[in-house]
Amino acid sequence: MTDNTYDLSCDCGHVTMRAHGAPELSLYCHCGSCRDMYSVDMLSATGWADDNVELPEESAMFTYAVPGKQMKRFGCPKCGMIMYGRHKPGIPVIPHGVFRKANGGRLPAELAPTLHLFYRERVLDVQDDLPKSEGGEAIGLDG
User: Fold this and answer.
1) What does the sequence similarity comment in the record state about its family (predicted)?
2) What is the CATH number of the domain that holds 71?
């Protein structure tokens, strides 16, 4: 386990949070639910154990629960930046962009994605050497 600490904030600085140690996972997700929830072509994010994140009080955030899904996103009520989500396994999922913002536009090397999840649902092909899981089996989720 690494002892890295990441101090994170939204665009306006109203919402702050901290992640430390190593994420449980770092990946690209191509599922339709993540694409819809984050308004992206593929989600680039890290998933963290609750013990490794200090999150703001939910009452200080805007929240959105995706109807019919076990997904909720949290963001700054002032600037609108999405700070994290909670997905089916229940762990906090922090988009890589939040880490890039705190690191001069670069993703720290130790947070680099290690696989593509739900690649069968992709809307764009990705040419890289990372494993491409057709469903969620690579991290123990049903496809």
Assistant:
1) Belongs to the Gfa family.
2) 2.170.150.70
Q: pLDDT higher for 139 or 49? A: 49
Confidence band for 66, pLDDT divided at 50, 70 and 90: confident
Residue 137 lies in a domain: no
Residue 54 structure tokens: 């200090």
Residues 111-136 have pLDDT tens digits of 999 999 999 999 999 999 999 999 88
Q: Tokens 């191509």 — which residue?
A: 30
The total domain count for the chain is: 1
| φ and ψ at residue 21, rounded to 5 degrees | 85, -145
Nearest to 26 by CA among 121, 135, 142, 130: 130
